[in-house]
Specification:
Elements: H1 3-8, H2 12-25, H3 28-54, H4 62-91, H5 101-114, H6 118-131, H7 138-145, H8 148-161, H9 168-180, H10 183-219, H11 224-227, H12 235-269, H13 271-306, H14 322-333, H15 344-352, H16 356-386, H17 402-435, H18 464-477, H19 480-497, H20 509-519, H21 524-541, H22 549-564
Helix pairs in contact: 2-12, 3-4, 3-12, 4-5, 4-8, 4-12, 6-7, 6-8, 8-9, 8-12, 10-12, 13-16, 16-17, 18-19, 19-21, 19-22, 20-21, 21-22
């Protein structure tokens, strides 16, 4: 492996994707091994947290509860090591080996001696940064935080590499080497998986906060959390969400570090290449098995067809002529499996009479004829079985069965003719379609028509000509109020295009009038016409004044005067 690739390792996303795929395809026994150790610890942690934070008698049984949590922690780490062992076997394409009592004991002792120190090193790597309030102490608090990726990688490697065979000292050294390998990959993976765990935590929190409302809606179960969902947000709720998140994300994290250790050890052992070769070998063995089954089926069909006389009667001496028998014997003794008995000179003379290509095509033709003959015999036997009760009376006298073979040949030639005709028609149509000139299809964008009855319609939703066109259409249909509003929005669009006003949803008609006076004070006629249109529009749109065609036409004429003024 190149030095640069050795320093970086595999891609982070590729390794996380492979870890996720391994977890998804893991057997039920492998997942049961993980959750058999982790679920008791998570449930014990929830009970311990709730009891220690709320019970008034918590101090009386603090020692017993802490000892129970320690035992549950060791129980979890032991089963997580077994889980990593099965994942490593799955990646190496080999079945997991059964554990002996000696290996079980060594795994449990190794995890008991190494893993508890993580409870002290993890907080030492995180708490200084969280507890630093003084800005001057912040750079110093970052120093222990920088060691967190290596601490995490070390203890995850202790879980992934413990197989119960090597001593605890060798396990410590191997885990330390794996933790120091590919630091960039390790840091990026922790950042990505931490972000993923945060979103999983939020999803669980949202689901659990909505459960009381769902129970009331579906089952009619009322509780205090329905009236006040935020009362659930206590420390027990958050530790519960943390436990659910741990159960979802930690298998991927364990599998990721198991793959890191697998590829790290493969730099010297080449175990990843062996696993790939096993996959290719298994695929090749399946192909060979299929070919052997197919060849055996074809050979058995050919033998049964060759040994069966059409009509179902066994061959007798009276049915085979002496010439046919001599020809069959001569053909049989000249087959390749009997040629070793012939003198070498005879075989060489036979092979030198034709060149290589002629012999090749002759052998290929003979092989195809044998295959066709075997297939025809098989079809003939099948037809004999299917139509045994439908035989004509003349069939008994025809012992050669040539009539059936001729019918099958005619049927095959008919099928070949149909397929050839269909292929010719298809090719002709393809050739004809290529010669046709394809006319370009012009597409025009369909402009959505705003709802003028909606108060939130803005003048910049259509250009000026679009509003004028819409106003004329509404005027023809007799919708005079909407037509007047369309003309008014056309005037606003025109003034905005001239940068005399700026369109905004919060502005009123009088705001537009004041803005026009400020920006267009050099056009007094424009100000007069726009003010007149505003008064007419507000009297019709917001007031109770009647509207008629003359008033709308006068309003549209003022809009045209606005366009030509200035």
């Amino acid at each position: 492996m190149k030095p640069a690739l050795r320093q970086q390792g595999s891609g982070v996303f590729d390794l996380i994707e492979e870890a996720t795929q391994l977890v998804r395809t893991a057997s039920a026994a492998t997942l049961a091994v993980y959750y058999a150790g982790t679920i008791p610890f998570v449930l014990g942690l929830l009970f311990f947290w709730a009891d220690m934070s709320r019970s008034p008698f918590a101090y009386d049984h603090l020692a017993e509860a802490s000892l129970s949590m320690g035992l549950l922690f060791l129980w979890m780490k032991f089963w997580q090591a077994i889980f990593a062992r099965r994942i490593r076997a799955q990646r190496a394409a080999r079945p997991p080996q059964a554990l002996k009592f000696r290996q079980v004991a060594r795994i449990f002792l190794a995890q008991t001696m190494l893993q508890p120190f993580a409870l002290f090193l993890y907080p030492q790597s995180i708490i200084p940064l969280l507890s630093s309030v003084n800005a001057y102490l912040l750079p110093l608090s970052v120093i222990p935080v920088l060691s967190f990726p290596w601490v995490c990688a070390f203890y995850q490697s202790v879980t992934a590499l413990d197989d119960g065979v090597e001593s605890r000292r060798k396990l410590f050294i191997k885990s330390w080497r794996q933790a120091a390998l590919w630091p960039r990959q390790n840091i990026l993976a922790l950042l990505i998986l931490t972000s993923f765990a945060f979103y999983v935590f939020l999803n669980w929190a949202v689901v659990c906060l909505s459960l009381p409302g769902l129970f009331k809606m579906l089952f009619g179960i009322d509780s205090v959390y329905v009236e006040s969902p935020w009362s659930m947000l206590n420390s027990t709720f958050f530790i519960s969400m943390f436990g659910l998140t741990y159960l979802c994300v930690d298998p991927i994290l364990k599998t990721f570090y198991t793959l890191r250790c697998f590829y790290g050890e493969s730099l010297e052992s080449g175990e990843d290449l062996k696993a790939e070769l096993k996959q290719f070998a298994s695929a090749a063995s399946r192909v060979v098995a299929v070919l052997l089954i197919f060849s055996a089926t074809l050979f058995s069909g050919a033998v049964s067809a060759a040994g069966t006389v059409p009509g179902g009667n066994p061959p007798t001496a009276s049915q085979v002529s002496s010439q046919d028998l001599d020809r069959a014997i001569n053909q049989t003794i000249h087959e390749r499996k009997f040629t070793w008995r012939m003198p070498r000179d005879t075989i060489e003379d036979t092979n030198t009479r034709e060149n290589f290509l002629e012999r090749f095509f002759d052998k290929a033709g003979n092989m195809l004829r044998k295959w066709a003959r075997a297939v025809l015999h098989w079809i003939d036997e099948l037809l004999n079985k299917l139509f045994r009760n439908w035989r004509p009376s003349s069939y008994e006298s025809n012992s050669s069965g040539y009539g059936w073979i001729l019918a099958v040949q005619l049927l095959l030639w008919a099928l070949v003719a149909v397929v050839a005709s269909a292929l010719a028609i298809f090719l002709y149509r393809v050739w004809r379609n290529r010669r046709k000139s394809r006319s370009a299809i012009k597409s025009e964008a369909i402009t959505p028509v705003p709802d003028l009855a909606d108060e939130n319609v803005r003048a910049d939703e259509l250009p000026e000509e679009g509003w004028m066109k819409l106003g004329r259409e509404l005027l023809v249909r007799g919708e005079l109020r909407l037509a007047m509003r369309a003309f008014y929005l056309a005037s606003l669009s025109h003034l905005a295009a001239r940068h005399l006003i700026s369109i905004a949803r919060f502005k009123s008609n009088r705001d537009y009038e004041r803005e026009l006076r400020r920006r267009g004070h050099s056009f007094p006629e424009l100000l007069l016409i726009f003010g007149e249109n505003i008064s007419a529009f507000e009297a019709i749109w917001y007031g109770m004044h009647d509207v008629n065609f003359d008033l709308v036409n006068q309003f549209a004429g003022n809009v045209e005067r606005i366009k030509s003024t200035g």
